[in-house]
User: Which sequence fits this backbone?
């Protein structure tokens, strides 16, 4: 077949091969027929042998979502990056926002959801009114073994659960290869598992 073969060309070639290689015509030998059938099934699963008119085009692959739990050493690196040492709450015990006189809060994600190049960081603690800082691993899409993290700061007008979308200018600079970056606050384990 030519590279520019249409879907109908592929189907017609399959019918011709199936007719000539059918076990009833070859004295019971089904090896060539099975080989041709496997090839046609593959082309059909890739979207190249559909009944649509026009040139055959492969289907886009479906993106599989995966959840990456952060290791304890990565969490400890994030804690030390924020300069809080052991003052940050552990991920399984979200702390309420601090009193209104203290307007900053530090956060660390417990897991990262990846769907292709779209990243979602799950943080167990709620957003606090005022200044918030989040230590995020930026090397999640790179294959390097070295753990790298950055602190992102933002102002919140209210406290509680919510989602923050990292602006494109920061995303391009700090998260190489990422298409979008979101941070979900006050995320319970069920929310990250449902990702």
Assistant:
């Amino acid at each position: 077949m030519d590279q520019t073969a249409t879907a109908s060309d592929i189907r017609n070639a399959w019918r011709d091969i199936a007719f000539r290689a059918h076990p009833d015509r070859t004295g019971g030998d089904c090896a060539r027929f099975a080989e041709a059938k496997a090839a046609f099934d593959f082309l059909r699963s890739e979207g190249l042998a559909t009944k649509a008119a026009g040139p055959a085009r492969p289907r886009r692959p479906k993106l599989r979502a995966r959840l990456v739990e952060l290791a304890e050493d990565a969490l400890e690196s994030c804690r030390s990056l924020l300069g809080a040492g052991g003052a940050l709450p552990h991920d399984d015990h979200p702390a309420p926002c601090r009193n209104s006189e203290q307007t900053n809060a530090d956060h660390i994600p417990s897991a990262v959801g990846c769907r292709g190049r779209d990243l979602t960081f799950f943080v167990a603690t709620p957003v606090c009114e005022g200044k918030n800082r989040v230590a995020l691993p930026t090397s999640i899409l790179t294959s390097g073994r070295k753990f790298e993290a950055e602190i992102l700061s933002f102002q919140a007008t209210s406290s509680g659960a919510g989602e923050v979308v990292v602006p494109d200018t920061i995303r391009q600079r700090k998260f190489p290869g990422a298409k979008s970056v979101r941070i979900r606050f006050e995320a319970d384990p069920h929310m990250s598992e449902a990702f």
